[in-house]
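Help!! Second protein's tokens look totally different from the first
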Amino acid sequence: MCLDRWQTDEMKDHPAVISDDESGRPLSTSYEVLLEEVEEIASGLRALGFVKGDAIGVHLPMMLETVTSLLAIGRIGCIAVPVFSGYGVEAIASRLNAVKAVGLITCDGFMRRGKVFNALDVAVEAVSLCSTIKHVLVCNRTIQLTCPFPSDKFIEFDDLLPWAKVSDRPLERTSAEDPLIILYTSGTTGKPKGIAHTHASFPIKAAQDMAFGTDVGKGTRISWYTDIGWMMGPWLIYGALINGATICIYDGAPDYPEPDRMWEFCAKHKVEILGISPTLIRALSNCGDELPKKHDLSSLRAFASTGEPWNPAPWWWLFEKVGDSKLPIINYSGGTEISGGILMGNPLLPIKPCSFPAPCPGMDVDILDDEGNSVGPGKVGELVIKQPWIGMARGFWQEKERYLDTYWRRFKDIWVHGDFAMRDKDNHWFILGRSDDTLKVAGKRVGPAEVESLLVAHSLVTEAAVIGVPDEVKGTAMVAFVVQNDEYRISNHLIDGK
């Protein structure tokens, strides 16, 4: 669905991936060449002894090898286990051990703000804690790190290719319900959850949401500032390629070497759909209103946003200062367990700031009170899904009861997502924060997101996070962590609440 179907005269020469990094040296790969590279890697993995059902970790920044590795792992029936490229040793080792991974694909290092992040040292130490790992493939980013491989378990990624026998075409037969990918999410409490998805779940839901929500089809250039360890990384890869689009990926800080790097990237590669998070926009908005205007952003057709609730100020900044009050902001909310979205806008529906115009196609969504009854306009309740959908998680990896406790045991045969939501009188939906994060202060339930929104509305505040701590009088007291705008020092006015 991602590659073979596009080997036609019309599509094979079309760019499948455009990758760029802080150096500003882009690389473009066609659908034809991408298929050849994926087949070579798949054949090389087979030559190393990987077989259907083996779990292989992917510890890479967003680059071409990340795309080819993810597709090659699925092509031979193995299970991909992406991990965030910036994770430390314990976070990586715990995930690899949980799935009994037999392989890991990593790199020697990558650049962040002009400095080398030594990924190989982290991977070496993590692998030393995983007894099941048999082979580690290391991509050379030409950073010339000097750390030697500690054992013959470690193999240069490029050394894999001479072993490949492309004529073998190692395409494994798989069923719709064979496991394809395990995506780890930390959730809000407890140890990370390994979300199990199959060949006909996550990729299809990703492609469906991308097509219907952001109008992506053949030839569309879509970029999402993300990482392979967050669900939006695989979502971008599977969804874009299934739709015949071009993935534009950026490996680096979005404001380096200059604060307008993101807008320069969009102009250079003629990005049409730009996926961001509210946090990223809050940071970029502080760099100045004039920076987006320095670049030709006429190719942009829409923004898309997910990951957290919006605050009005950064939403309006993106809409007015970058989108010239013309481009829709497609708000998108769901989760790793969903394979994408529960709620989403699209270019045809009216949009209100920070809202969601409708559920995603194929999602039977409602808002319920504590007794399981639907609530009316203006009432807050639990966001739920009442019927199955194509991308639903097949469970937590080897933790069935934890999965059932998390989503299925609040209301009979209803998925409870864990978000507070509300519909207004015009039937627009609003996400109000995690219901399992609710603080009970002096007997009243308060969502941290509500207080955080008030804090970031202050002109001196860029970011805010609110937690609860035990309090003898109120039961729970709120503590706020606040990040100020760079141009201000600690302000007595802010401390005094003025």
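Here's the second one for comparison:
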Amino acid sequence: MGKSKQYLTETQIQRRIQQGFGQGQGKDYKPWLRVQDVPSLGRSHKIYSHRTERIHHLLSDLERAVFLILDWKTTTYDIREQFPLKLEDTLEIAKGSGIKHPQIAGVDQVMTSDFLVDTVEKHLSKFVVQVKPVSMLKDKRVVEKLEIERRYWDKKEIPFYIASEQSFSGAIHKNLAWLYPVQHSDYQHERKRSSKSVLFHRCQPL
């Protein structure tokens, strides 16, 4: 999610890659961006997941809401937040589509997807969710960057969705936040019922 004017130099980008950021799976995954790295829109959160056995870095209240829903689903087995897209690939897509690649101070920035999700569902074993407030979806530049991201995942044949505050009710978020500490107790029926109430929007090409 494009939350700030986060700036990394080319040296810092290479250092993060060498340090393993944006790599690994499950409890070994290290998000490309952490709470301490990025000024967030609204409040940022660190939430421990018993499913992945690690702390997840969520950069807004809306990201937290989507994460709770994804982590609550019984079919989810891994969630990788702030997942980096390969810079050489996004640069190629941007050039081919005539869209300016995200750049700050002359340095092409690594784009990230908010959530890369792995599931046990045969028809949707892996998918991506990008979180954006509805107000941001009216911004032409935001839409352009989403198009780069959509094309990136389309090339990998991985479904790409957009989630906004209109994707689910506030009541669902509040209930999941309240139940989350006991999600690994006997609440399977409630988990299945809650997860069916969520609607993510499949991103369509420009």
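Reply: Different proteins will give different token patterns, so don't panic. The first strand starts at residue 45 and ends at 49.
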